[in-house]
Here is the input.
Amino acid sequence: MSLRYGLLGLLNYYDMSGYDLKKTFESSLQYMWSAKSSQIYRELGKMEKEGLVLSKIEQQEKKFDKKVYSITKLGITAFQEWLEHFPKNLELPIRDEFIVRVFFGEHLSFENLIFEVKRFKKQREDTLEALTTILITAKHAAAEDGLDKSYYFWKLTINKALKETQAEIEWAKETIDELMNRS
Amino acid sequence: MSLRYGLLGLLNYYDMSGYDLKKTFESSLQYMWSAKSSQIYRELGKMEKEGLVLSKIEQQEKKFDKKVYSITKLGITAFQEWLEHFPKNLELPIRDEFIVRVFFGEHLSFENLIFEVKRFKKQREDTLEALTTILITAKHAAAEDGLDKSYYFWKLTINKALKETQAEIEWAKETIDELMNRS
DNA sequence: ATATTATATTCAACAAGTTGAATATAACTT
DNA sequence: AAGTTATATTCAACTTGTTGAATATAATAT
Here is the structure.
């Protein structure tokens, strides 16, 4: 029920289509919120019914028509209301398919487990690179669109993801060493 | 669809009721998997229908009857099959209500934001303590039940949670400083 | 004495998220 | 010239997760 607030937040920057929102998600909220296209389109439909957003069809020269959404006054109020009320419990519900398997690692071979932890490490290293790239492109994008004030907060959140990812890579290194000494 | 494998994994240690499983979850898988009681009971029901677990009613002296579940051969096979097949993509779908609000922080007062980041820091410090306690009690529990081999892997996973939590606390400290200098 | 917490489970209703198919065109690559 | 990728959206079916009510007793705290 709060994908909608992510969408409203992004529509505060500028009007966008479902597709644009998906793309924007991918280069920003991706690391704190995940959403599939189908979910975004459905949610936008609901939000329009509830008067939080308005859509208008925009004709494009050569491409298809776009359905461009804009935030309404009601939408702005709803967003602000949500924003100011942080949840009491800031723990996140985790569902980590990888680490659960490590937890039950006694039923796996050391070889297999080392292989998977190495794969995990590689993926997090890629994430680290992606985050660095995002930080740079976000800076440029913000400068172009006059969103420097927004960029300040984007940076705070990317810093968090960077630190967490670094910690995970550290853990992976130590764990690989540990497992290799044991096996 | 993989809460079931967490349950099967725990039933490998010993037979348990839905309630026991919930409790065991809370002192172990909690930091990698979250599940409400109602979900556990429902999943156990399904699993019994599918022949992955068996239940028998156990009479207790003064308390209620307990429905104690045990893993079947089919259950063991299903668990092993799941365990050996790690997902290709090891990223986790995140849904972080806190950090999304920081992302949109320009619509909040610095005062409010600082308050919330401090609250976040405090909660993570509590988590850190809880993790340390869990590590100790798990060690004792493992020793008592002859699960020392299992404990080795539990420790690996708790280490990961510890490192991540420490990184989050670090981030919170830096961010509080940064926000206080700006405001 | 009374209230609360812990034990122990079930179930219905609802909300949210995932998968996959369907449709249609422009732009780019081989 | 043919194939792939990107653009752009909709929808149905399904799985998963959340909330809250209902039931019933022992143990502990006030």
Remarks:
- Chain B has a mean pLDDT of 92.
- Helices of chain B lie at 3-11, 18-26, 37-49, 73-84, 97-103, 110-145, 148-182.
